[in-house]
């Protein structure tokens, strides 16, 4: 069974120009993900999908293979699933691990543990999650708010609250067959790996500062 890691890294970031090549602890952000993926023996190939020449050159420098992404899949409106499907139609593999490079606190061991859990299971796909014991609310269109994680008048003490799980860490794994059928990162019987450490996505310059301090 051939397992590949795909790192999507477009060049058109709006909030942080050239975000994926901005240096974090002295190396480009995308290179952090490449370095971690290349440590995993269960990953046969590490790929970067990009439309940007600079990102492509950096990715090759750090040992990744590069697939040129069509311009229409590098727009703000493009979905990651479309990038995965484009990759699947052009590269041979059995399983694909998607690793979003905007989660630099995700470790090589996280990748390894997710692949191991997936390979030993009956899951069709799996993703990384983090636990939150925050009380979650949603905002309605009529400008009212309501709780999602508990019923009013029945909220538990925080020490008795089991919490909820949020997509985080930027890791998704699925088979090529399931991906092409569902056109989704995960589908069918979906498994999970709970991150044993904090997870933080880089979306702003302040996020870069926070992650650097955490690292």
Can you describe what's shown?
The chain is an alpha/beta fold. Helix content is 27%, strand content 26%. It has a seven-stranded mixed sheet with strand order 5-4-1-6-10-7-11, sandwiched between helices. The chain has a two-stranded antiparallel ribbon with strand order 2-3. A two-stranded antiparallel sheet has the order 8-9. It has a single domain (3-129, 167-214), classed as Spore Coat Polysaccharide Biosynthesis Protein SpsA, Chain A, CATH 3.90.550.10. It starts with a strand and ends with a helix. It has six helices and eleven strands.
Question: What is the strand and helix layout of this fold?
Answer:
Blueprint lengths: L2 E6 L14 E2 L2 E2 H10 L6 E6 L2 H9 L3 E4 L11 H9 L6 E5 L8 H12 L5 E8 L4 E3 L5 E3 L16 E12 H7 L7 E5 L10 H10 L1
Parallel strand pairs: 1-4, 1-6, 4-5, 7-11
Antiparallel strand pairs: 2-3, 6-10, 7-10, 8-9
Major sheet description? 7 strands, mixed
Q: Round the mean pLDDT to the nearest integer and report it.
A: 94
**What name is given to the CATH topology?**
Spore Coat Polysaccharide Biosynthesis Protein SpsA, Chain A
* CATH structural architecture: Alpha-Beta Complex
Computed structural class: alpha/beta
Strand line-up in the sheet with most strands: 5-4-1-6-10-7-11
Strand content range: 25-35%
**Element pattern in H and E:** EEEHEHEHEHEEEEHEH
Helix content: 25-40%
N- and C-termini, Cα separation: 34 Å
